[in-house]
């Protein structure tokens, strides 16, 4: 039985055909003869939406009638990718739609290729939010995702002359069939201005914030369809607009242009996603984005709560608010402000509600990624919120810190939410930990580091507040939809329930040594490699051999992720091949996909280096095609879906202690790639699940990294101590890869030597290089490799995002399932 057969009743092929044709005519104003693929795609979406919108309404009715407790997932990022194929699978009509389109003379893949990626996120954190809302709907939990309706998502990357160029992404330029505008739920958001202290007739003091500006938040709802579930939740994204009132005085005074400027300033708030992952810039517009969507979302949550309640005594019972990193932290002082200034609660009651409502997920230990905002910016944009933060801090230091460490001013300074210095700063992560009832890390090892290294004193104060919830990925997108071939092999083996319960795949472990099973599994891998080879040819004009080892590193470009360590090793291999034409190795294709933050100079230099090295290596006849290097431009969710299924080797090579979890590592393993990685983030747990003998672990572990740094790490020792390493580093200074322009790649060498090699690439080089030799040896043993690939794929059921969500529900959210009619 096919995974989709059960709900086929919902819409047969014939009904689907009728519906598509009807929508071509009555929704799109065209017909079968004249429609282009774009119209066919939209008509297909409209046909699906007849089912989706019904369930959306039923879900919200069921939640209202039950007055259900719900989680509100606040995130600046939701990296959704395309929705059509997933919605078809989740509604259970994929086969019907494919067959209907075939009958109508259309290929479903061509039609679905019309959809632009919804790239409202940078990377891991945004994609995690997307997997989580998929799982929440699948598991029938009441949940709303709240974010920003960016006009432009993450920039489109072009490569010109080997260098990254950023182009605006316009994902909804020609309309998005999945979103519904909800003007009935518009919110107004105040900004700037000053705070007045007012004494009422009762002698009580009140604070009144006189805002200097108002902007309007317009909600757009994206339905989130549960897999073969009746639940359709919403992702509510806020778009900023100029407030309704029109300043006629300004207009009449000849200020028409000024009033237009005001309008563009308001619209600027949701104009573009900030493209910096893991780095703080302190830009005023970013703070306004954060406040804008938090204020809209809280008003929305409170409006819904008030439909069934007359006071706030039940608020924290009905609503839990999860902060996806510190980016939405300003929701904390905003809820305090609403409760005290607008609803008239006293501080202690408001504080109790806040500290029972908010929970915080930490995604990073990198010091430069820990958000801090200048006090003067807060004072200017959100003057009342700054007062509230001061009061939270005063009570925290005078009550809690004083009680635990009496008279210890050094400790107070150390733990203060306000960092003193030339520019006083608000430490957002401290504000979260002080307020939230739970703080969690995203992998076991990361959560330990959160306690030990990031918040040791807070952990002494409140050990019960710290949790781990290991990340996961949705098997619907990352196996069922992106790897049809492997998905149907698993359905034949274990039945159709594995997309919910991914641990069912462990049955395949019994066949890991079965020759027929191995052949089938590796034939599928080969098919996916052939498909990817075609994509590579189209995008890069490079021919790659599907029989080669496909070795893939796809993730944001960052020094801690060490794409440059990968590059150093590629250079070493290339050098070995040049020095010894008989150097024994399997053919290898190194594939990269990565965007660099536009202002991150070294990251962009690394992209340039990869492209220049690729040019040279791919056209060097001396090495007989044994080595190929490919940089795929514009890495995004849709490309990722073609890459994970085609990988033999998954590069997870961060400096131990720096990658909080990683989630690509899980998608690779699920699709049968072997991890080549450090003991970092979720790699540790992947190795635990699949067995040490089925992964290639190399390099310093987290404690060794700390010890080496403490002892005084000197990259020059490794440079002079390893002739091959010295040779490849020196190579970067020549014009070998940049003919006529020596020094163009020198910044990489420089960062690794004079720059002190902060991420210990040179320290791990030898071990990495040996691990690659082990990979090569192992690949020569076809049966041995097939066995390991199968075991990897069959053993990562733990990393289903449904399991992550059940962990959040048990440890933090405490939700009940609600079944709509
Ligand atoms: C901060 C301030 C200003 C502008 C941008 C930012 C910003 C934006 C995005 C800071 C960080 C991010 C994204 C971080 C991220 O993706 N972290 C990753 O989260 C994954 C999900 O938990 C983990 O698997 C990865 O290990 C972690 O790097």
Short summary of the structure?
The chain has 32 helices and 25 strands.
Ordered list of secondary-structure elements with their pairings:
Blueprint: H1 13-26, H2 37-66, E1 70-74, E2 78-81, H3 84-91, H4 94-103, H5 108-112, E3 118-120, H6 124-138, E4 143-148, E5 156-160, E6 163-167, E7 180-181, E8 187-191, E9 194-199, E10 205-210, E11 213-225, E12 232-242, H7 248-268, H8 284-306, H9 315-318, E13 319-324, H10 331-342, H11 347-357, E14 358-361, E15 372-374, H12 375-381, H13 383-404, H14 409-415, E16 418-419, E17 425-427, H15 428-435, E18 438-441, H16 444-454, H17 456-461, E19 466-468, H18 475-481, H19 484-494, H20 515-540, E20 549-554, H21 563-579, E21 588-593, H22 601-618, E22 627-631, H23 637-643, E23 649-652, H24 664-670, E24 674-677, H25 683-690, E25 696-697, H26 702-711, H27 715-721, H28 723-731, H29 746-752, H30 761-780, H31 782-794, H32 801-813
Parallel strand pairs: 1-4, 1-13, 4-12, 13-14, 14-18, 18-19, 20-21, 20-23, 21-22, 23-24, 24-25
Antiparallel strand pairs: 2-3, 5-6, 7-11, 8-11, 9-10, 11-12, 15-17, 16-17
Helix pairs in contact: 1-2, 1-4, 2-3, 3-18, 6-32, 10-11, 10-13, 12-13, 20-31, 21-22, 21-28, 21-30, 27-28
This protein binds ligand 26Q.
């Amino acid at each position: 039985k096919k995974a989709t057969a059960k709900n086929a009743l919902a819409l047969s092929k014939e009904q689907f055909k009728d519906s598509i044709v009807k929508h071509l005519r009555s929704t799109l104003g065209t017909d079968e003869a004249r429609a282009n693929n774009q119209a066919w795609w939209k008509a297909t979406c409209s046909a699906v939406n007849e089912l989706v919108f019904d369930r959306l309404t039923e879900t919200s009715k069921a939640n209202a009638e039950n007055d259900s407790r719900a989680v509100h997932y606040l995130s600046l990022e939701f990296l959704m990718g395309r929705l059509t194929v997933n919605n078809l699978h989740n509604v259970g009509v994929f086969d019907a739609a494919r067959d209907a389109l075939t009958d109508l003379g259309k290929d479903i893949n061509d039609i679905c290729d019309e959809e632009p990626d919804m790239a409202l996120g940078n990377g891991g954190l945004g994609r995690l939010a997307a997997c989580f809302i998929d799982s929440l709907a699948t598991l029938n939990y009441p949940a709303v995702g709240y974010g920003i309706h960016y006009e432009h998502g993450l920039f489109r990357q072009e490569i010109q002359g080997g260098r990254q160029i950023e182009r605006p992404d316009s994902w909804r330029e020609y309309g998005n069939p999945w979103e519904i505008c909800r003007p009935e739920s518009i919110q107004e958001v105040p900004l700037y201005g000053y705070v007045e202290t007012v004494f009422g007739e009762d002698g009580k003091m009140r604070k009144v914030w006189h805002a200097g500006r108002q902007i309007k938040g317009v909600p757009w709802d994206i339905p989130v369809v549960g897999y073969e579930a009746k639940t359709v939740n919403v992702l509510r994204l806020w778009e900023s607009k100029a407030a309704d009132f029109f300043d006629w005085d300004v207009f009449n005074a000849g200020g028409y242009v000024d009033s237009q400027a005001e309008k563009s300033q308001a619209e600027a708030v949701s104009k573009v996603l900030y493209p910096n992952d893991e780095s703080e810039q302190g830009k005023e517009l970013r703070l306004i984005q954060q406040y804008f969507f938090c204020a809209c979302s809280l008003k929305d949550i409170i409006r819904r709560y008030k439909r069934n309640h007359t006071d706030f005594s039940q608020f924290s019972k009905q609503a839990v608010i999860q902060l996806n990193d510190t980016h939405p932290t300003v929701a904390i002082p905003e809820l305090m402000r609403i409760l005290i200034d607008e609803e008239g609660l006293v501080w202690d009651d408001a504080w109790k509600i806040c500290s029972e409502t908010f929970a915080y997920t930490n995604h990073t230990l990198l010091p430069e990624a820990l958000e801090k905002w200048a006090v003067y910016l807060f004072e200017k944009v959100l003057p009342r919120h700054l007062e509230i933060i001061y009061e939270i801090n005063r009570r925290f230091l005078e009550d809690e810190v004083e009680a635990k460490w009496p008279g210890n001013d050094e400790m107070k300074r150390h733990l203060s939410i306000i960092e003193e210095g030339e520019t006083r700063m608000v430490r957002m992560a401290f504000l979260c930990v002080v307020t939230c009832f739970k703080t969690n890390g995203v992998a076991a090892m990361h959560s330990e580091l959160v306690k030990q290294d990031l918040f040791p004193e807070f952990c002494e104060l409140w050990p019960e507040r710290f949790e781990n919830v290991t990340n996961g990925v949705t098997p619907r997108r990352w196996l069922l939809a992106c790897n049809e071939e492997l998905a149907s092999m698993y359905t034949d083996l274990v039945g159709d329930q594995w997309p919910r319960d991914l641990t069912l795949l462990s049955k395949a472990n019994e066949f890991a040594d079965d020759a027929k099973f191995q052949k089938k599994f590796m034939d599928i891998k080969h098919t996916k490699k052939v498909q990817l080879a075609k994509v590579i040819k189209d995008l890069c004009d490079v021919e790659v051999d599907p029989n080669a080892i496909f070795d893939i590193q796809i993730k944001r470009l960052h020094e801690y992720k060490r794409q440059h360590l990968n590059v150093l090793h590629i250079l070493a291999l290339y050098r070995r091949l040049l020095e010894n034409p008989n150097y024994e190795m399997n053919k290898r294709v190194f594939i990269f996909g990565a965007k660099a933050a536009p202002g991150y100079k070294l990251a962009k230099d690394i992209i340039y280096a990869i492209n220049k090295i690729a040019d040279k290596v791919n056209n060097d006849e001396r090495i007989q095609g044994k080595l190929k290097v490919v940089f795929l431009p514009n890495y995004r969710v849709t490309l990722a879906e073609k890459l994970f299924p085609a990988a033999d080797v998954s590069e997870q090579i961060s400096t131990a202690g720096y990658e909080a979890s990683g989630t690509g590592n899980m998608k690779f393993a699920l699709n049968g790639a072997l991890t080549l990685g450090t003991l970092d983030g979720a790699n540790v747990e992947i190795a635990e699940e699949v067995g040490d003998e089925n992964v290639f672990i190399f390099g310093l572990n987290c404690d060794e990294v700390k010890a080496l740094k403490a002892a005084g790490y000197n990259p020059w020792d490794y440079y002079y101590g390893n002739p091959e390493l010295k040779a490849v580093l020196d190579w970067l200074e020549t014009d070998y890869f940049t003919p006529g322009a020596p020094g163009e790649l020198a910044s990489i060498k420089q960062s690794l030597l004079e720059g002190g090699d902060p991420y210990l690439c040179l320290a791990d080089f030898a071990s990495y290089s040996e691990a690659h030799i082990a990979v090569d040896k192992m690949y020569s043993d076809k049966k041995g490799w097939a066995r390991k690939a199968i075991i990897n794929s069959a053993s990562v059921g733990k990393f289903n995002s449904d399991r992550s969500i059940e962990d959040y529900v048990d440890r933090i959210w405490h939700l009940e399932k609600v079944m709509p009619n």
